[in-house]
């Protein structure tokens, strides 16, 4: 199988491909991925979950039913993706052999394009194997809050909420918004929502930190450039095995009427719930449900997640102290979105950047997530 040129306009670093070597590399990488994913165990888990999902009493416990069906759907999707990718790798050799046998330049260009597509898909799947942290397999709770920058910061916080929800929508991931506090003029003060798919926490935890927006402010009558900030917090969803106990006597519970943009009431009853954990000062609220009881349950889930993360950070701080690490290796400010005087979004840790901010704000985040996960793994290995 002879080397072939990349198609015109290809942006790769090399102009000629040693197809045999690249196919061997792809197959080897895919073999490592299959070993980490443990496809046989995945098939066995799917069989068990399918049996549970078929039980007549499944929806007697809606919360457990949701977990079973969500886990089943995720595993089926991962297995299908791995099997299809292996099949595409196996088919590539045939595509190149046919193109060589017929000396067909168009067929060869199509084969090279497919090779590039498969390589990208393998790289993306490889990232999944890097999610091996204690809580990485959990669903995620994302909390976004406006920081410095006034109304521009509130507007930016709302843009970030839309960005993550659009990212989840693109992938078919279920989300649920628990609470949104709207700002007076525009945008939001804060929001909390769940991404209900396995490994959502491991994937999105690299987004945690301060995001910075530079643009001509649409709220400034003089059209001046404005820098604003929004904070993103990502928490793992608490499971029953976590043993996060909350004493009711340590809680202050306030109920109030849910509100929409501009303070407009959206509920005629006092169903929204705000919980204050007195020992830590942590405050959470929920207003997405019509029932006060449901809102309290959702707020308790968020509070438990925050307490779990607090405990994790305290344990990590102790480990860092023993290792002589001040715990500042991650930093705080992690990404800049520049809309003026030039167009760019850049991750300040990984150096990954793109020149189309609007696409990123529309949910095209996979490049940043992949770079962040790889960067985090490198940081862990250096410790």
TrEMBL record:
Residue ranges the record marks as coiled coil: 75-128
One Pfam assignment: RF-1
Source organism superkingdom: Bacteria
Lineage of producing organism: Bacteria, Bacillati, Actinomycetota, Actinomycetes, Kitasatosporales
The Prokaryotic-type class I peptide chain release factors domain, residue ranges: 257-273
Keywords: Coiled coil, Cytoplasm, Methylation, Protein biosynthesis
Post-translational modifications reported in the UniProt record: Methylated by PrmC. Methylation increases the termination efficiency of RF2.
Family of the protein in this entry: Belongs to the prokaryotic/mitochondrial release factor family.
Subcellular location: Cytoplasm
Gene name linked to the record: prfB
Naturally occurring in which organism (per UniProt): Streptomyces bingchenggensis (strain BCW-1)
Modified residues (N5-methylglutamine): 264
Name the UniProt record assigns to this protein: Peptide chain release factor 2
Gene Ontology CC entries for this record: cytoplasm
Matching PANTHER family: CLASS I PEPTIDE CHAIN RELEASE FACTOR (PTHR43116:SF3), PEPTIDE CHAIN RELEASE FACTOR 2 (PTHR43116)
UniProt-listed Gene3D superfamilies: 3.30.160.20, 3.30.70.1660, Release factor (1.20.58.410)
Biological function: Peptide chain release factor 2 directs the termination of translation in response to the peptide chain termination codons UGA and UAA.
InterPro entries given in the database record: PCRF (IPR005139), Pep_chain_release_fac_I (IPR000352), Pep_chain_release_fac_I_sf (IPR045853), PrfB (IPR004374)
Main location: cytoplasm
Molecular-function GO terms, alphabetical: translation release factor activity, codon specific
């Amino acid at each position: 199988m002879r080397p072939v040129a990349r198609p015109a306009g290809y942006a790769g670093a090399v102009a000629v491909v040693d197809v045999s070597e690249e196919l061997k590399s792809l197959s080897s990488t895919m073999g490592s991925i299959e070993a980490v994913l443990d496809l046989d165990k995945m098939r066995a888990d799917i069989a068990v979950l399918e049996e549970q999902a078929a039980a007549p009493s499944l929806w007697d416990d809606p919360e457990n039913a949701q977990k079973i069906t969500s886990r089943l759907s995720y595993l089926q999707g991962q297995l299908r993706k791995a099997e299809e990718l292996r099949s595409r790798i196996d088919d590539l050799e045939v595509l190149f052999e046919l193109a060589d046998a017929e000396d067909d330049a168009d067929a060869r260009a199509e084969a090279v394009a497919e090779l590039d597509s498969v390589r990208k898909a393998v790289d993306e799947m490889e990232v999944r194997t890097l999610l091996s942290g204690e809580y990485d397999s959990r669903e995620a709770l994302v909390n976004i809050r406006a920081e410095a920058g006034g109304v521009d910061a509130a507007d930016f916080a709302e843009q970030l909420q839309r960005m993550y929800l659009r990212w989840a929508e693109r992938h078919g991931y279920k989300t649920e918004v628990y609470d949104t506090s709207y700002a007076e003029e525009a945008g939001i003060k804060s929001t909390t929502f769940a991404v209900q798919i396995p490994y959502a926490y491991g994937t999105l935890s690299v987004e945690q930190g301060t995001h910075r927006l530079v643009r001509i402010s649409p709220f400034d009558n003089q059209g001046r450039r404005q820098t604003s900030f929004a904070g993103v917090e990502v928490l793992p969803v608490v499971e029953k095995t976590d043993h996060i106990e909350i004493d009711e006597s340590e809680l202050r519970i306030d109920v109030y009427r849910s509100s929409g943009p501009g303070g407009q009431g959206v509920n005629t009853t006092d169903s929204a719930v705000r919980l204050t954990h007195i020992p830590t000062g942590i405050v959470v609220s929920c207003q997405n449900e019509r029932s006060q009881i449901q809102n309290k349950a959702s707020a308790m889930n968020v509070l438990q997640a925050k307490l779990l993360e607090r405990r994790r950070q305290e344990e990590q701080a102790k480990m860092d102290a023993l290792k002589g690490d001040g715990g500042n290796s991650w930093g705080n400010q992690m990404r800049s979105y520049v809309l003026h005087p030039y167009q760019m979004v850049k991750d300040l840790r990984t150096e990954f950047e793109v020149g189309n901010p609007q696409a990123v704000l529309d949910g095209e985040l996979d490049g940043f997530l992949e770079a962040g996960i790889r960067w985090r793994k490198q940081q862990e290995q250096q410790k």
